[in-house]
């Protein structure tokens, strides 16, 4: 039995309007949420035209489909989705003449989009997670819609039939979870790293930090809840279909300061050419369907938003630096950058808010233009809600006395390692070594 997709009613009208365009085909993305029982589609977004194509007709053959442009659009859209939402699949509206080739083109697009999105993620999907993605094909003449799914974890996956059902006010009363995470990440830049590859080092540092987030304890409204319990357990379920019925849960994130006693700690001495410091308080948000959601689903969605939002804005910052300063820098000096701030924009008829990032010098008009281009959504300036203060990136090279500093670090590390290796010696000797280290630190500082 295939999967069932419950689809926001307004999407049907949106797709119908796109099908009237005098083009041989129109492509786009399906946005929503997976769950073990069913999937939800709350947005459909057409692929924006390239600048060179705005004055030209679309080529009449699917062989000319610009796969790279469509996957780039999916990557941009994924940054604008809060926790719990993802690109669920791809749609294509085609003329009857192209209908036979449509499904093969959709299959290729689904795997290309998923591959592109997976590369950017700092988290891994859970074993029980839904891995099927939707391929929706609509005939522009008959308006007939055919939905199939492909398992993106299996490159040889064949199409499976799926149900496509419209439903009114689908996401009007979804549950929202929010938290503020204070970030203070110190990332060393190895001296062996070629050309001071800041982006690569930052991603490696964020990978380590993301594991801390995965292992954190999440308090929902001040309580630790079992993973398999219902998120709404003990609460009266709302039957309303308006935004006023939306429930918001405040979440606290408790990060472990150290590993448990069962884990053995090791120290590594590395020669560094500098460091990157990420500081700030990031606002995170996730949305979850209201069909008996489990605590595990909600926390997983929020964890991924925490990891994604910091990773995405670092990615945006480096893209901005490349545009302004070029891909390679000849000098390595101390730099101080401001991370883009997060903002949220409501979706009409839904409790869900979409997200974006804004640099300090960007005007509201630029945000509105981006929403219109990427998500095909008109946004009023007064509906743009800034969520947080300023976060920073401090890129610090080592001081001029690099050799002295490195020697000091190596001396301290050597003393500590020797102390660990000789824990069985006389206590008086250990006290003497500790005293010498304390004295050395006192004068060196």
From TrEMBL:
Transmembrane segments: 423-443
Gene Ontology cellular component terms for the protein in this record: endomembrane system; membrane
Entry keyword set: Membrane, Transmembrane, Transmembrane helix
Record-linked Pfam families: ODR4-like
Predominant cellular place of this UniProt entry's protein: membrane
Annotated localization: Membrane
InterPro entries: ODR-4-like
Record family assignment: Belongs to the ODR-4 family.
Protein name per UniProt: Protein odr-4 homolog
Species: Cephalopterus ornatus
Gene name tied to this protein: Odr4
């Amino acid at each position: 039995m295939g999967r069932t997709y419950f689809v926001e009613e307004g999407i049907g009208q949106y797709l119908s309007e796109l099908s009237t365009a005098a083009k041989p085909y129109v492509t786009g993305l399906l946005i929503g949420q997976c769950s073990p029982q069913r999937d939800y589609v709350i947005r459909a977004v057409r692929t924006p035209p390239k600048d060179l194509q705005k004055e030209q007709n679309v080529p009449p053959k699917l062989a000319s489909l610009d796969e790279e442009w469509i996957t780039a659009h999916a990557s941009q859209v994924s940054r604008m989705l809060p926790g719990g939402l993802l690109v669920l699949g791809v749609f294509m509206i085609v003329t009857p003449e192209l209908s036979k080739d449509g499904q093969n083109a959709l299959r290729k697009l689904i795997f290309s989009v998923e591959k592109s999105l997976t590369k950017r993620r700092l988290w891994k999907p859970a074993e029980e997670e839904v891995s099927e993605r939707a391929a929706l094909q609509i005939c522009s003449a008959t308006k007939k819609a055919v939905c199939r799914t492909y398992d993106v974890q299996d490159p040889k996956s064949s199409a499976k039939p799926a149900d496509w059902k419209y439903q009114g006010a689908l996401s009007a009363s979804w549950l929202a979870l929010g938290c503020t995470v204070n970030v203070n990440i110190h990332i060393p830049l190895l001296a062996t790293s070629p050309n001071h590859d800041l982006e690569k080092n930052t991603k490696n540092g964020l990978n380590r930090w993301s594991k801390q987030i995965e292992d954190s304890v999440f308090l929902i409204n001040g309580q630790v809840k079992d993973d398999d319990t219902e998120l709404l357990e003990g609460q009266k379920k709302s039957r309303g279909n308006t935004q006023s019925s939306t429930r918001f849960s405040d979440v606290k994130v408790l990060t472990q300061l150290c590993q448990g006693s069962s884990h053995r700690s090791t120290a590594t001495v590395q020669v560094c050419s500098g460091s990157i410091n990420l500081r700030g308080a990031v606002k995170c948000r996730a949305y979850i369907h209201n069909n008996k959601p489990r605590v595990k689903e909600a926390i997983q969605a929020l964890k991924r938003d925490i990891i994604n939002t910091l990773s995405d804005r670092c990615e945006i910052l480096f893209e901005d630096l490349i545009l302004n300063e070029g891909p390679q820098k000849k000098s390595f000096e101390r730099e101080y950058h401001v991370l883009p701030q997060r903002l949220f924009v409501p979706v009409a008829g839904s409790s869900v808010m979409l997200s974006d990032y804004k640099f300090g010098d960007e005007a509201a008009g630029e945000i509105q233009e981006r929403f219109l281009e990427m998500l095909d959504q008109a946004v009023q300036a007064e509906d743009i809600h800034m969520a947080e203060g300023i976060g920073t990136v401090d890129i610090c090279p080592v001081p001029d006395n690099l050799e002295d500093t490195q020697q000091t670090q190596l001396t301290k590390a050597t003393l500590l390692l020797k102390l660990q290796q000789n824990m069985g010696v006389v206590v008086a000797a250990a006290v003497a070594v500790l005293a010498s280290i304390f004295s050395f630190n006192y004068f060196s500082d």
